[in-house]
Amino acid sequence: MKLNVNLGELSLKNPVMPASGCFGFGKEFSEFYDLNQLGAIVIKAATGEPRYGNETPRVAETAAGMLNAIGLQNPGVDGIIERELPFLESLDTPVIANVAGSTIEEYVMVAEKLSNVSTIEAIELNISCPNVKEGGIQFGTDPEVAQELTKEIKRVSGKPLFVKLSPNVADIVGMAKAVEHAGADGLSMINTLTGMRIDPHTKKPILANGTGGLSGPAIKPVAIRMIHQVRQITDLPIIGMGGITTTEDILEFILAGADAIAVGTANFQDPLVCKNLIDQLPNTLRKYGYESLQEVREARCTQVSI
Ligand SMILES: Cc1cc2nc3c(=O)[nH]c(=O)nc-3n(C[C@H](O)[C@H](O)[C@H](O)COP(=O)(O)O)c2cc1C
């Protein structure tokens, strides 16, 4: 069965990739299966300098997912280029670099450095992170800031740019329009939803950071709704994510309007999940009467306007 998909200039052999931050830089997972089977690999966020992340505890379980406040721990863009990318170079599968920062200058510097590396085929812009220098405005929640950042990155990067949208907004369509207008080549959605847990014994938040990002099956209906909304106003390729654990979930995301999907939290439960989803996808598509992935995309759900 034909599972290949084109995301603009990017050709994938199938629509399944690990989500940023849930697959490291791939090395550990290569001990479990051949990473060439993946549609693409999205690596952990890169920042200008190495970051050690937030204080522990920085992960907590929830009824249908997890909360994390890792705090963008990573070896910094130079460390990633020197120590992590050589391993990925030998793979015959596109590598997408996830870019983060605290200021526009940092984002631009990181995106430019990664864009100059031939191993990297696309950039994913993580705009759901800390504040701008002057204080207070989140990149992922203010459409004007998101637009400016997207424009600046397009100026220095020749690689396809996927902007990863935060669900922590009232108007996801407004955010999508803003970044499309600024030149985004695609969208990734969604990132985590801000959440919190409190320990009844100490009466304090369980995470040292206070709040964290909720991911896993709990957020899937939010992701489906947002992708469905955004698909109605744009033809940009969409990489969908949020709680995917089964091939039925993949089908649902594509029917909502995604072109490809990323699997995040499920990798922590089962390191083989991406491989298994790829292996099982043809059977699930057949079960629902499809002969190819393209047929699913054509059968997109368009009835509901939100
Ligand atoms: C532990 C952890 C670390 C993450 N790190 C990143 C990151 O570095 N950059 C990013 O854009 N998203 C990051 N995310 C968000 C995921 O890529 C994904 O968007 C989100 O978890 C929703 O998918 P899921 O429900 O399948 O996990 C992280 C998520 C988790 C759980």
Automatic annotation (TrEMBL):
Chemical reaction(s) catalysed: (S)-dihydroorotate + A = orotate + AH2; (S)-dihydroorotate + NAD(+) = orotate + NADH + H(+)
- Chain residues that bind substrate: 44, 68-72, 126, 191-192
Q: Which cofactor does it need?
A: FMN
Q: Where, subcellularly, is it found?
A: Cytoplasm
Residue span(s) of domain Dihydroorotate dehydrogenase catalytic = 3-285
What are its E.C. numbers? 1.3.-.-
Enumerate the Gene3D superfamilies for this protein.
Aldolase class I (3.20.20.70)
Active-site positions on this chain: 129
Is Oxidoreductase included in the keywords of this UniProt record? yes
- Extract the InterPro entries matched here: Aldolase_TIM, DHO_dehydrogenase, DHOD_1B, Dihydroorotate_DH_1, Dihydroorotate_DH_1_2, Dihydroorotate_DH_cat, Dihydroorotate_DH_CS, Dihydroorotate_DH_I
GO cellular-component term (any): cytoplasm
Entry-linked Pfam families = DHO_dh (PF01180)
Pathway of action: Pyrimidine metabolism; UMP biosynthesis via de novo pathway; orotate from (S)-dihydroorotate (NAD(+) route): step 1/1
Keywords from UniProt, A to Z, are: Cytoplasm, Flavoprotein, FMN, NAD, Oxidoreductase, Pyrimidine biosynthesis
- Which annotated residues bind FMN? 20, 44-45, 98, 126, 164, 190, 216, 242-243, 264-265
Against CDD domains, the record matches this protein to: DHOD_1B_like (cd04740)
Cofactor binding note of this UniProt entry: Binds 1 FMN per subunit.
Top EC class, one word: oxidoreductase
What GO biological process terms are annotated to this protein in UniProt? 'de novo' pyrimidine nucleobase biosynthetic process; 'de novo' UMP biosynthetic process
Can you tell me which family this protein belongs to?
Belongs to the dihydroorotate dehydrogenase family. Type 1 subfamily.
* Alphabetical list of HAMAP family matching this protein: DHO_dh_type1
Q: How does it assemble?
A: Heterotetramer of 2 PyrK and 2 PyrD type B subunits.
Q: What does this protein do?
A: Catalyzes the conversion of dihydroorotate to orotate with NAD(+) as electron acceptor.
Q: Name it.
A: Dihydroorotate dehydrogenase
Q: Which organism is it from?
A: Halalkalibacillus sediminis
